[in-house]
What we know:
Shape: globular
Distance between the termini: 30 Å
Strand content: 25-35%
EC number: 2.6.1.42
Number of strands: 17
Keywords: Amino-acid biosynthesis, Aminotransferase, Branched-chain amino acid biosynthesis, Pyridoxal phosphate, Transferase
GO molecular function, one term: branched-chain-amino-acid transaminase activity
Radius of gyration: 21 Å
Structural class: alpha+beta
Cofactor: pyridoxal 5'-phosphate
Family: Belongs to the class-IV pyridoxal-phosphate-dependent aminotransferase family.
Bound molecules: 2-OXO-4-methylpentanoic acid
Order of helices and strands: HHEEHEEEHHEEEHHEEEEHEEEEHE
Amino acid sequence: ASSTRCKAVEATTYTREVSELADLDWDNLGFGLVQTDYMYVAKCSQNGTFSKGELQRFGPIELNPSSGVLNYGQGLFEGLKAYRKDDGFILLFRPEENALRMMMGAERMCMPSPSVEQFVDSVKLTVLANKRWVPPVGKGSLYIRPLLMGSGAVLGLAPAPEYTFLIFVSPVGNYFKEGLAPINLIVENDFHRATPGGTGGIKTIGNYASVLKAQSIAKAKGYSDVLYLDSTYKKYLEEVSSCNVFVVKDKVISTPAIKGTILPGITRKSIIDVARSRGFQVEERLVSVEELLDADEVFCTGTAVVVSPVGSITYLGRRVEYGNKGVGLVSQQLYSALTGLQMGLTEDEMGWTVKL
Ligand code: COI
């Protein structure tokens, strides 16, 4: 604890640094790590509650080689974004939803989790300490990455005796190299992302390591990413490596229902509500891969990808195109509605944004 305390940063130090904008090429942000000034760290024993936590200079952390996260993958992550507004305020989008999802995941992974209040307060603290890294209006957002991990040492398979809750941030632009242009997906027939009874429904780190193989094969063939099918019937859509998927047909919007193998995306849930509030019929149900063949539009949703239109999907060697090489009308409408709220351009009638 004493070494952690030495690294702790006093509030007075960072308030001096945060006033101006960081020196960065704001016009060329992609989705890669830009190291910022501070990270937040809190610790907890197996059955305890998290310490108050503190800001530290961003940098490497010490981990026991025998830690639960390194040996047995006992870890979760979250993702949310902060946008800068014209009036200088910063907006967070539904941070309490990330806190609740982390709690659900922690329960499944036998980890203690921070309370909703501690999660949200520490996100706010970390964003404000790194305020100069929140991109100027229209240039991107600050991606916030909370981590929860078994940092205590274990050798036999068991929950770790100590946990670390850490938050770091990075300014980001568009997730896909296509920018806002439609992406090209391939339906994966051999690899699966999740199985019934497994951990597909929580944001555990292993879910993302296990899709790297299929993703890299797809990228080598020129696709933007992979769309996974259910592992039982190999017939129903699940999700893309880093986002949820929606299919539009005759103005009806459908998305795979949450049933334990699909990540309950916060953008997914928000898009469903936004679409319904605009009069669309939205169905959460089993969506067969065959439905891709005659869909009008397909789009993906996620914190990182926001709303990404899909330009083509290849399934068993057959390529189907959408949107006439452009962005479909429904995808465009929902993208504008959601980002309008997130960036504070339209009135937040949903009460989803948190102003800093
Ligand atoms: C997010 O959208 O925040 C995610 O967690 C996806 C990640 C693979 C970038």
